[in-house]
Amino acid sequence: MAIEDIVIPQMGESVAEGTIGTWLKKVGDAVAADEPIVEVETDKVAMEVPSPVAGVITELVVAEGDTVEIGALIARVDTEGKASAASAAAPAAAPAAAPAAKAAAPAEKPATVSTVEGPAPAKAHADLMPMSPAVRRIVDEYNLDPTSIVGTGKDGRLTKGDVLSAIEAGTARPLSAPAAAAAPAADKGPREERVKMTRLRKRIAERLKDAQNTAAMLTTYNEVDMTAIMEARNKYKDLFAKKHNIKLGFMSFFTKACCLALKEVPAVNAFIEGDEIVYHNYANIGVAVSAPNGLVVPVLKDAQDMSFADTEIGIATYGKKARDGKLTIDDMQGGTFTISNGGIFGSLMSSPILNAPQSAILGMHKIQDRPMAIGGQVVIRPMMYLALSYDHRIIDGREAVTFLVRVKEALEDPTRLLLDM
Q1: Does position 194 have pLDDT exceeding 50, yes or no?
Q2: What is the chain's alpha carbon radius of gyration, rounded to the nearest angstrom?
Q3: Which three-class secondary structure state does DSSP give residue 375?
Q4: I need a surface site. Which of 115, 175, 309, 313 has the fewest CB within 10 A?
Q5: Residues forming beta bridges with residue 301, ordered by sequence position
Q6: What mean pLDDT comes out for the span 61-71?
């Protein structure tokens, strides 16, 4: 027997501890080298910890929900061991004995008991699919039929990214529940449910509240006519996708426009540290992304030097990593300015909160056709409201308005983006 200790790996200079989320393996399970065995949540990211060696799990030292420091022992692996008979036989036996497998799985979420005889609900069949606890949690939360989702993991298993992508694309089917429909009307379950906040969610709450308490936050608004950008995008999107193998979106236009405006109004790209103002001669643009565990802001480093294709590829990569829970600390550090796009959720106007220690954040919103007075005539144009929230301690109103106007001008006349004007 050769025992190998598994410890919490280093997750970044500012991360000292994490919370054990879900164990993906149990004692007696075989594990391959670099195969994830547990989910760990920190105040910045949620990530999976892989086993550094192949072998069999012999001990889980900590329980789900425990807080552990970086470098702490969490499990042990026997590199010469073999998986227990129960663990090895479970996957093969499940399809052959569906009712028995269902009854013998105490760790699974209990099915709703039906009072009406008839065919079993679809969920009974869906529970036979092998899924990690993290994937099953999302499937149960959205009441999905996992058989409607194509798995890309080992042996066709579903990954977290598969499920989230299917939800986003609208291809995941919800489970039908005929038995539940026939259940007594009085049995509606608990009226309240208490769920402990994750470490990441608590950290998000703390940072947002700190920004409100610390900064003299103010928001200025403007609107932009998206006609020119939409025409350019429609004209070149197919050629762009063919050449760069990535779709041409709106974020690359906004990122480039912000980089130009930051050069003209450097206070928007600065922050306060003690009694000093730190100005940046580069633009690290944070892009707010909604992930399963909460809002995260990965950073496009040196965005001022990136092409449209580089920007779109970077955003797409971060979006996938966020959905799969694979963002690293380095992905989210070093931002100097943030862009948040509430328009993808239908928001018409909002006041974004600063992403401390940054001094400004741009809020994009829904594109909506509105009547506009142009050249003495009323015409219908695709319009978007823009919002710039800023720290009034470092940015004056004149600078904030100037910045937003420069962004508006660059978007309404994309030629400025090419001429650096």
Answers
A1: yes
A2: 25
A3: coil
A4: 115
A5: none
A6: 83
Backbone angles phi, psi at 174, to 5 degrees: -75, 155
Rounded to whole angstroms, the Cα distance separating 279 from 293 reads 32
Q: What pLDDT, in 10s, does the model give residues 211-250?
A: 888 888 999 999 999 999 999 999 999 999 999 999 999 9
Alpha-carbon gap, residue 67 to 416, rounded angstroms: 51
| 122 and 175 Cβ atoms separated by less than 8 Å | yes
- d(Cα 149, Cα 167) in Å, to the nearest integer? 9
Q: Give the span between the Cα atoms of 75 and 68, in whole angstroms.
A: 12
CB-based burial of residue 154 (10 Å sphere; 0-12 exposed, 13-18 middle, 19+ buried)? exposed
- What does the pLDDT read at residue 207? 78
**Which residue type occupies 97?**
A
Q: Tell me which residue has tokens 């449209």.
A: 308
- Decide: pTM greater than 0.85: no
Q: Which domains does the chain have, with CATH numbers?
A: 3-78 (2.40.50.100), 109-181 (4.10.320.10), 200-419 (3.30.559.10)
Statement: residue 51 has pLDDT above 50: yes
Cβ partners under 8 Å of residue 221, min gap 6: 349, 385, 386, 387, 388, 404
The three-point CA angle 358-360-365 to 5° equals 130
Distance CA 203, CA 199 (A): 6
**Nearest-angstrom CA–CA distance, 265 and 373:** 30
- The letter for the amino acid at 394 is I
| Known catalytic residue at 392 | yes
Q: Give, rounded to a whole angstrom, the gap between the first and last alpha carbons of the chain.
A: 68
Contact of 38 with 48, CB cutoff 8 Å? yes
Angle between helices 308-324 and 251-264 in degrees, nearest 10:
110
Catalytic member of 127, 392, 413, 420? 392
Asked if the model's pLDDT at residue 121 lies above 50, the reply is no
Among 358, 361, 299, CA closest to 330: 299
Q: Max CA-CA distance within the chain?
A: 86
For residue 388, what is the enclosing H or E element? Answer: strand 377-391
Examine the residue annotation and report whether 396 is marked as an active-site residue of this protein: yes
Q: What is the pLDDT of residues 93-102, one digit of tens each?
A: 444 434 443 4
Structure tokens at 129: 């699919």
Rounding to the nearest 10 degrees, give the CA dihedral for residues 351, 362, 44, 15.
-120
Among 169-183, 248-262, 345-359, 365-379, the range scoring the smallest mean pLDDT is: 169-183
pLDDT at 110 over 70: no
**The one catalytic residue among 302, 396, 413, 420:** 396
